[in-house]
């Protein structure tokens, strides 16, 4: 039934009042929301490998100013890794990085001055949403002595680091994955560190030959050089793969891989290099400071005594300006003729295989008296002095400051290095001890 004409204006006024009230409530809600302060940015590093010194956080401008954490007595303070909480989705967060002001050690002694900031400032930092899968940030900009990276907020925790972290937990995952793929690959404990942590490695023993040649590959004698462990992961992934050359290598050689030697400093977020009284890679003498170095020496000496130590590879990352990987080797005049020829052959093979996206320099660099006062106590030189006459001992330095210095880039170098190992072992006959 149609209402009386006198009722229509009243109903219109009621509808208008209701609509107006709803609009007012909606406007008030929007105003309150817009005036609610953004969640505060927070920084955390209380996890394995975490390290940072926060200088300030500008909540209004969303700028985090920081320097690397770490104790200079435990190595160069260039490593940093932390988590950002409290970001808004889509907002721009600026990371303002300065070099550590703390005095650093070098050449085995205190320098009285800070480490050059370039060691802490990759052109592109590492970033992750879950702390597992890592990618690079956009290139940073150097301004007023600070490196500035801009990242986008996600509304979720954001992990950032000097480079893609690889911690003892990653070693355990690598061992488990390798064993699941290849039962002949099993974990072993090399030693217990001075702080009570296990130094774990992978042992691949598929050969039936008791006099088989042996390959020893290790990484991270300098804790901050995280890319070295990712190269080690790439080596491992290829070695346990179904590639024909990998199967042949496993059938003919015994293989050891230690992804992290300096476990204590990796776990605590310290740099490791030039630690007091010396770092792991200057500790290879008759009385090592570190139990893991002593344990590696004992195993290597046993293999050499059996005439089976064929190849020793130490994995590192070099200086910021080194854009191509290269080998460090000992002075050739200290090797036997057979040792020199085999090492030259391996470097030629590796230069052919390690070619994309990071291409190996064809000529190695020599570690000698002008390199470091403790050069004879560097692992590669110790192996030269204590291995078999034909033992090949090299240090591979994989560039960390390039657009290809990613987990995929490092793993590719590892794959290519492993193929080079297989080619050498197939190409050169190894004579066991008499």
TrEMBL record:
InterPro entries: Cytosolic_carboxypeptidase, Pepdidase_M14_N, Peptidase_M14
Residues annotated as signal peptide: none
Cofactor list: Zn(2+)
Domain Peptidase M14 per the UniProt entry, residue ranges: 164-434
Gene Ontology terms, MF aspect: metallocarboxypeptidase activity; zinc ion binding
Keyword annotations: Carboxypeptidase, Hydrolase, Protease
Gene Ontology annotations of biological process type: proteolysis
Lineage top rank: taxon: Bacteria
Pfam families, per database record: Pepdidase_M14_N, Peptidase_M14
Name under which the protein is recorded: Zinc carboxypeptidase
Source organism of this protein record: Caulifigura coniformis
